[in-house]
Amino acid sequence: MRLNNKKNYLKEYIMINILSVLFHFLLFFLLYFIFLMLMHMNKVSIHLYEPYNISNLVYVIFYLIRYIFIVTSLCILISFIVINFNLKPTMFFCLLILLGFFFFQNYFLSEFKLSFLLIWTYFSDVKFITFSIELCYSILFILLIEIIIYIFYIFTYKRKRWLI
Fold first, then answer.
1. CA nearest 70: which of 108, 21, 24, 28?
2. If 0-12 CB within 10 Å is exposed, 13-18 middle and 19+ buried, where does residue 52 land?
3. Considering only CA atoms, which of 94, 116, 129, 22 is closest in space to residue 65?
4. In the chain, how many domains are there?
5. Which residue segment(s) compose the domain that 101 sits in?
6. Is residue 10 included in any domain, yes or no?
7. CB-CB contact of 148 with 77 (8 Å)
8. Per-residue burial over 119-145, b = 16 or more CB atoms within 10 Å of its CB, e = otherwise
9. Taking the CA of residue 99 as centre, how many other CA atoms within 13 Å lie in the half-sphere pointing to its CB?
10. Highest mean pLDDT of the ranges 27-36, 87-96, 103-112, 140-149
C-alpha cells in the first residue's frame, strides 16, 4: 500500500482493518446461523433474557454490536502498536491480552470494582446490575479505546520515522 502522504496511508490502513474484521465477522456469523438453523430449526425462539428482563434478540444484537466495535478497535490499536513499536512489543501486548482471558475469570471480574475498564469483562459472562448499566459501561469502554486509538493516530502521524 503506497499513498501520497502519511494521513492517507493511516486512513487506508484503518479502513483495511475495519473491512477485514467486518468481513470475518460476517462470514463467521453467516456460517454460525446456517448451522444453527439446520440443527435447531424448530427450537429457536425469542424470549426474555433472564438477568435483565429484556428480549434475548435485543441483547444478542447489543452484544454483537459491542463485540464488533471492541474487536475492531483492538485490531486498529494493535496495528498502531506494530507501526510505532515493531513486532516484539506488539507480541507482548497480544500475549498480555491472551493471558488475561485465562487469569481473569468471571468470579474475579464480578468482584473487582473497576472491572468495566478491563477488556475481558466484555468477552466473558459478567452480569451487571441492570442492562442500562451494562450499556453505559460498554459505551464508556468503547469511547476509552477510541480515545487511545486517536492518541496513537496523532502520535503515529507526527512521528518522523515509522518502523514498518
1. 21
2. buried
3. 22
4. 1
5. 45-158
6. no
7. yes
8. bbbbbbebebeebeebeebbeebbeeb
9. 6
10. 140-149
